[in-house]
Amino acid sequence: MNLVIQGLDVKTPDLKTLARLTQANGIEQVRPNVFRLVHSTPHPDVPRLCEGAQLDYGYVPEGQRLDQLGLVVMDMDSTLITIECIDEIADMLGIKPQVAAITASAMRGEMEFAESLTRRVALLAGLEEIALQRVYDERLKLSPGAERLLAVLKAHGIKTLLVSGGFTFFTQRLKTRLGLDYAVANTVEIVDGKLTGKVLGKIIDAQGKADWLNRVRTELELGREQVLAIGDGANDLKMLAEAGISVAYHAKPVVREKTSYAINYVGLDGVLEFFEY
Question: Which cofactors are required for activity (predicted)?
Fold first, then answer.
């Protein structure tokens, strides 16, 4: 195994300490602030030291190449983008704290997602549809490194699926803007230009995300090991479990504990560093 170390500022003393602990054969610089500790042996102190130095790490099998993947599946809110869209929509009504509290509870796994979404959308009843466009135009920002990640995936012919418990209003715009191959989300009912407070059709919840991953994987005739999934909340756990390789991105502890890799400090393109490309 090679130990990949990356961060916003990787200091030489920290690298040397990690190399000594893991009995690495050498330290290779892959890119600025990205290093590979060659032939490392896992050590229990690595997580603590990396957290103290604000470094992301991952033990990577030799020869794990990006072109072995065929599909990358990712969550939208707080993963591909920096915001929780529904919380920002709620802010337009002056009820962001109430909605954000339900969002946070669901992401920690304390509440079933379908229940949380139904409760949150009900609070939005009467909101003008133009508020959704304002959130997209004024508040929605891509996560750092998102565009580079997608560009490299596209260059390697890897398909992309955006699957969200959020709204198609945002996923479809991102699909067009970023050239994503697939995008799936929930549809809020709008009548006479206003949200009714209802969700149309079956809610895309944790199981729905996992089902869509498998649906697209089957369509593309890929093996489980050819799928990478990225998410941040409890609602992503079933989806992450269906992928051969999973990444927790700036995620809740319950997610970090159950994924192949966790990124806590660098941008979304840090996912690429777990592969040779």
Answer: Mg(2+)
